Structure formats: C-alpha cells, structure tokens
Structures
1.
Amino acid sequence: MIHPTFQFRNGSPVALERAIMGKMSQPPGSWGVRMKKVSVLVAGGGPVGLTLARDLARRGVDCMLVERNFTTTRHPKMDNTNVRSMELFGLAGLEPRLRAVAVPEDHPFDVSWVTRMTGHELKRFCYRSPLEDREHFRDRNDGSQPFSPAMRVSQAKIEPVLKAALEAEHNVDIRFGVAVVDVAEDADGVTVTLRDQTSGQTEQVRCLFLAGCDGGGSTVRAAVGIGVTGQHSIMPRFMTHFRTDDAEARALLQRWGVTWHYQSIHGTLIAQNDVDTWTLHTRYPANERDASEPGALIERFVGKAIPHEILIANPWSPHLLVAEAARTPRVFLAGDAAHQYIPTGGYGMNTGIGDAYTLGWQLAAVLAGFGGPALLRAYQDERHPIWQRNLEGSRRHNAVRVEIASLYEAGLEDNGDAGAAARAAAAERIAALGNAENESLGLELGYHYTGSPIVASEAGAKAPDDPYRYQPNTLPGARLPSVFLDDGTAVYAQLGRWFTCIAFRGTDTTKIEEAARCRVIPLTVLRFDDPHVREIYGADMLLVRPDQHVAWRGTGLAESSDAGAVLATALGW
Ligand SMILES: Cc1cc2nc3c(=O)[nH]c(=O)nc-3n(C[C@H](O)[C@H](O)[C@H](O)COP(=O)(O)OP(=O)(O)OC[C@H]3O[C@@H](n4cnc5c(N)ncnc54)[C@H](O)[C@@H]3O)c2cc1C
C-alpha cells in the first residue's frame, strides 16, 4: 500500500526533504555552526553532474553542485552524443541549445580507414547526417528507430551549455572552484566536507543524498569504500588537439570528403567542427621516440608536416572499469565515477547521461514522498548490469580496431599492382570486420531493466538482448519504442515529465487516474486510436516512467486495487 506522506502544492512537489532535514541530527564533530543543508549534493560538474543537478532542480529538489575546477573542461574528450542521450536531452528541453554548438546537422557521421592523409583511402563507412536521419526515422516508423539523431560535438562545447541550463534553475546552489574532500555517511544523511580551491577554507554541508559524479578518480567513490573491477590503463594514448587556418592543410584533412573520423594504424583523427579544429588520438606506446611530440604525431598521421596550432596535448590512458556497487544507502555513483570505458562506441558520457536521468527522477520521487524505498534500490539493479554490458561492448569494438590495425603492413602504399592488391585485400577485411562501434543500436537503445524491483514481471517473457540490433518491444523494463502517430506527431513529444499512461482503443483509464490522484503521483494520460502504433506497442495500456522505460503493460486496469498495485510497484513501495 502506498503512503504518500507529502502533498503537491500548486502542482509541484512539496519539498519533503525540508521536513526530513528538520529531523536530521547534527553529526558528531561538527563545528557548532549551523551547517548548510540540501536534499542532494552533486559532486562534480562534468556533463553527468550538470545533467543530474538540472534534472533534480527541475523536479523540485533543492540541490547543490560542486566542481573542483573553476571552469568547464577545455579537453575535447567526448565527440559523439548518441541517440539515446539526445532523446533524453530532447525531452529535457535541451536539444536545440546543444545542437546550436554541435557540428551542423547536414554533416554526415562517416568513418574512414586510410593509410595516411597523403596516401590512400582503404574503406569508408558512410552514415547519414542528423538531417537525413530525421527523415529516415519518420519514413521507417516501425519502432526500430530512435526519436532523435546522434550529435557530433565535443565535451568542451556541450558542458558550457549544460552549465548555463543549470544556472537558469532557481533551486540549485552551483559552486565551481569547490572540491569535495571528505564524505561521512550516517543513518540520517551525509556530511560532506568541501574545500574552497581559492582560499583553501573548508566547510561542511549536510545532505540527504550525495551523488558522486566526480569522474574516474572519484573522491566520493573512494570515501565510501566502493572498489572497481576490470582493467586499468588498457593502452597508453596521446591526445593532440589542434587547429589550422591553412587552407591546404584543411583540404588535406578532409581529403576524401567531410568525415567525422579518419582512422589508421597511426591513430584516429576526429574532425571537431569540419572547419578548423581536429583532435588526433595516437595509439603508440609512450616509450616511442616521437610518441609525445605533437607535431611529429600529426605529421606521421597525415604523411607530411602541416601548419598547425596546438590547443592542448597530453598523454592519457583508457580503462575498462566498473564500480563494484552503484550506491551505499545514501551515496550514489554516476558517470565515470561508476564506469570507465575505452572510447570505442562512445559509451562513457552517454552511459552517464542515462545514469543521470534515471537517478534524477528516482531521487526526486522519493524526496517528493510518492517514491518508496525500492526506488533507491532500483538504481543499482537497473544501472549496474548496463554498465557491465556497455563495458563489454567497448571492449569488443576496441578489439576490432586492434585487428584492423594489424592489417597495416609494408606495401600498403606501394604504387603498382602489388600495392593496389594489398589495399583491396585490406579493404575487404576491414569491410568484413565492420564498424559496429557506430552501429550498435542494441546497446544504445536496447538495454532493459530485467530484474528491477520497480518494473512489472511477466511470466516467461524474455527481453531481447542483441547488443548490435535493436528490437523494439514494450516488455516492462524496455525503453518505449519511438513511433510517429498518423497525424505526424511523435509519441515521445507527448510523454509527460513524470509518469505517462498510454491507452489505446478507448481503454478505460479512470482507475489508474484515480489511483495516481489519491497517491499524489503526477500522471499524464495519452489516449490514442492509432492501429499502427497500437500494433508496435503490443498492449492496450502501458505505464511509462519518467525515463521512458515501460513500467507495466496490459489490457487495462478495471479495478482500483489493480491500478494501485501497478503504481505501487512502479514507485517502489
Ligand atoms: C578521447 C576520449 C573520447 C571520448 N569519446 C566519448 C564519446 O564519443 N562519447 C561518450 O559518451 N564518451 C566519450 N568519452 C568519455 C567521456 O569523456 C566521459 O565518459 C565523460 O567525461 C564522463 O562524464 P562525467 O561527468 O561522469 O565525468 P567527468 O567528465 O570526468 O567530470 C567529473 C567532474 O568532476 C570533477 N571532480 C573530480 N573530483 C572532484 C571533487 N573531489 N570535488 C568536486 N569536483 C570533482 C572534475 O573536475 C570533473 O569536472 C571520451 C573520453 C575520451 C578521453
């Protein structure tokens, strides 16, 4: 049975947390000064922390975000915001702002293997531009396609957009230049010690929940004693982020047409804006003579020296690591604090955005009083298997790259028949190995919260689990497939900020509406009479969560007790 202790005021969640805060005891060792108290403290102002804090704020939760650096990152890092992240950002109203700083929408996502930029193109994998994708998604309209196309953009470009969006929210205290230095969790809350990076002064803040979004070296994760499993430092790499104004060099760097990634045994060249800025990631071990001389690395990849200005250059190393647990009772990990991957596939930030939009509504529902205790447990049950699944994807994709690199042999650039034959053989092999790292919709969209305590179970049902191919389905736990109605509008565009009940063919929604009203659960009801969408969704009624995953589906809810039970499960009671 649901016990909604706290009510909505003017349609928005009342701050339950304030009441709980009143009961919070002063922790031992506190300075006797009244500590600042917030419901949620988000540690880390990278893309994941910024996204989570904004989602919490928009759901009525008062929170604080602290970031040890004074500004958002200058490092390009991530360059592919995938389709699932774009769906999530889109539903949070951020898509136009993000796309405004991204590579133009009519530019393709092509990936091409070359010998050198002065040499030969071996094999090109052609991919549609976001503009073409949009048209394709509408034309297909069979549930197999995402709602939003992916986006080519660097992390250095999107973090300021996410920060500005957070700054527009009123109930969040944003502190850049402030680091988390210690965490003490007790039964009632968490005391977090912060250090001002300018003055060195420390301050303690008390929160009900702490979100560790503080990256791979997470202070939060270490402080609560959660270990990581997997492989550290898979292979040393060197990043050279550079720009060039030289027209000839720019033409050479897009020699075979607008291309997102040019790849060779010498590394990966990422076109960051298709104008003047590129990032080269080289794959040579650090002990090689020129492995950390940026100009030499560019020259080796390109095949000749080009005029360039280095923006940033540094060694780095990817890891394949997953945190042993997603949470303690009051501390939750998200983003790189919870998982670190090789960038092949682009699962790092994208998995973290999924974490943020899962944790956001779950914490907010608990704090608003209509979410029950199992909601907090669900984060571990739902996200941890996805972290591992994406780790395996990243590992597989990297193995393909390593195998392709092994095809590079002397003679690949030779003139004459022998060189041409060697290139043809390499091209054939590359085509056979494929480019699943940019094609695995099964990983991006097909993840499923099997075993979660807050999704309905269906006897004998088995979720599809193909990492490559996405098979649309509405089994509870699955992401709701995106479909356009016959009037041209998208179902996704109509989903509510909280729960949504979708009903077809006049199925009665009274009982679930009543149950939601009496339990103070925000519920949007969508009634459709569209046979095509009904067929894809495979049920007359579906309950969809705030993160667009299906919580329950059935033929209808005729009894109040059934409706109450469905909501009770979905809300973690
Ligand atoms: C070369 C490269 C390419 C990549 N490509 C992609 C891609 O295409 N797609 C993709 O999804 N991912 C990609 N990634 C991974 C992506 O960059 C990370 O997954 C992403 O940065 C994770 O975001 P985050 O917010 O969890 O962590 P971070 O971006 O690391 O942010 C954590 C923040 O916490 C702050 N912090 C740390 N400690 C503290 C503390 N004690 N107190 C306060 N603040 C603290 C840090 O300063 C930082 O700002 C790539 C990474 C690299 C290196």
Note: The first helix runs from residue 16 to 23.
2.
Amino acid sequence: MIRFIAKIWAKLSYLWQLEFESAKSDVNANLAKRNTNEKRKLVDRLNKEAEDIEKRIAEMKLLEEQGYWLCDNGHEKGDAFAPIVGGETRTCLECNAPAKLVKRSEMTPQEQYESDRERHEAEKVAESKRQQAKAEQEHVSGGEQTEKHLRGLADNGRSVADKIRAL
Ligand SMILES: [Zn+2]
C-alpha cells in the first residue's frame, strides 16, 4: 500500500516539478521577448535619428553650394536663392529680420572652416548613433537566442511530463 502511494506521489511530484520549471521558463521567455522588443524599438529610433542627421547634412551641403538666404532668426528661405551676388541683404519673408546669403564660394576661409567643423560634428553624432544601434542590435540577437532557448526548455519539460503521464 505504502509503496503504491509512494509511486503515485513520486510521479506526481516529478510531474509538478517538470510543469513548474516549464512554466517558469515560459515566464522568463516572455520577459526576454519584452526586453528584446524594447531594444528593437531603440535600434529603430537610433537608426532613424542617424538617417535624419545624414539627410540634413547632405541637404545643407547642397544648399551651401547653391547659396541660400538665412535670416537672423534662423529661417532658411529656399525661394530667395541666388543669383544675387553676395554682400547684399534681404529681409526674411517670415519674420522681416535681415537675411544674408550663405554660399560656399563666397565664404571666407574662416567661415568655410566653421561650416566644415559643424558638418564634421554632425557626421560624428550620426556615426555614433549608428554604432550605438549596431551594439544594441547585438542585444536584440542575443535576446532572441535566449527566448528561443527558454521556449525549448519549456517545450522539452512538457513533453517529458506527457511521457511520464502516459506511463
Ligand atoms: Zn526669419
């Protein structure tokens, strides 16, 4: 009688253990999944920010070659482009502040240097965002592996439990 109860008890407690560990693995897998999703969003955001900066750099480079009007309040007027020879002033169509022509070929060496420096700094920011995104992407891949591993453990535990139940 005792032996019979002990057998049932051993089987039940083993099943309990397997099911418990499987459930725990599932919880941890869900946690890993949530973290991975957050990291993935971060990667997307960083890449988007880098892309916006790179676009802006290219846009500014082109504008500088063509020449554009910039007012004291920072408005850029695309419709007030050259062909007007530099030195002339205009007023901003938006805020009436005085605007000056910004054009690469008419810049002093100092102005060119400043412009290049600003561009290099922006490039560095974009590059650092790309690097950060790349590093975070590795966390995403690691998180996916972890989740897969935990799901495998949970499935395995349940399939062993099913076999024991069938005994
Ligand atoms: Zn303005």
Note: Residues 71, 73, 75, 92, 94-95, 97 surround zinc ion (CB under 6 Å).
3.
Amino acid sequence: MRRLEEAALDASTCTRCRLSQGRTQVVYGVGDPNADLMFIGEAPGFHEDKQGEPFVGAAGQLLNQLLSEIGISRQDVYINNVILCRPPGNRDPLPDELDACKPWLDERIAIIDPAVVVTLGNWATRYILGRQVSISRVRGQRFPWSSRTVIPTFHPAAVLHGGGQASNQMTALRADFQEIRAALAERPQPAEEQLGLF
Ligand code: SF4
C-alpha cells in the first residue's frame, strides 16, 4: 500500500469529476497519518478551498475545542471530508461526484486505518453507514463498520448555526465527544492484538 503523501499528491491533480473545474485546490485532509481517530465531514467550504485544509474557521475552532476538552489535540487525529473539492455555492455533492471521489476516501481510510471514525452531520453519516438515518437519532451511538467503530455526531457548523455554545445541540455534541473518548480507550491495543486477545 502506498503512503499517504503519495496518495495526496496523486489526488491533488484529480479531474475525475466536474468539481475539479471550480476548485482552488484539492482539500485532501490534515493530521496524523497513523491516527486512531478520524473525523469525516461533508465537503470543503469557502475557507477550506482557499487554505487547502479541512475544518478551518469557526467550525474548525469548535472541533479543536471539543478535542481539547477530551484531552486530544488536532495534530493527533486525522480530519477529512467525503468530497475533496468544494461544490459550487456549497451545494450538496451529486451522486456521480460521490462515486468519483469514493476511491480517494477508501484509500485514505485503508492507509490511516483508524479504530474510531466519527462522522460529522447527517450527510457524512448516511454516506458511511450506507443508509438514510437522522443524525439526531443516531448521534453518540457506536456502529461496527469494517472492523472499526463509527460514532456519528452533529456537524460543528450546524451547532454554531443552531444556537452555539449554549444550545442543547452543543450539550449533545459534548456528550458525544465523551463517547468518542471512551471508544478510543476501549480500542484493542497493539500488544493485545499481537497476543490474539481480540
Ligand atoms: S471531488 Fe474528488 S473526484 Fe471530484 S475532482 Fe475533486 S478529488 Fe477528483
């Protein structure tokens, strides 16, 4: 399997779908290539497209804050989106765009091999779980997925738009991050895996 930087370099010139025409750059992902925890959002927005990094701006700051509250730094996780190029006007990606970008996501997950995958918002959750679910119903729960654990939660941008730090959504988001921390603490450790205990 090739290394993450090779995959990112390859993706940086991707023209598999029409989103290549309007992007400033491909927004591949950021963080630790060996992370046990991966966050998956929807698609780059305006600032992400300009800066080439996912989850910058207010939503990114909230994500950093939530990570800090459970004792994890942004550098220790991997953050990316289902779609690598900004859809025009931040519209939802179209089915053929998702199909075109899926191999890049599959490859990132295979290379990074995270134990816990957190989907942010309805959209990424439905894409990863492969079914029509409501984020308010499934948030904070653990779902087994390809030998990993998926934990859906609200998208930080949605929480900021829906009332911010004092909202019920923010309380729920905080509770979900405690669940993320618990799932990470319970993941099989390498020594245990080698002993065949899991
Ligand atoms: S969105 Fe994905 S598939 Fe489409 S051009 Fe960008 S990197 Fe390629």
Note: The chain has nine helices and six strands.
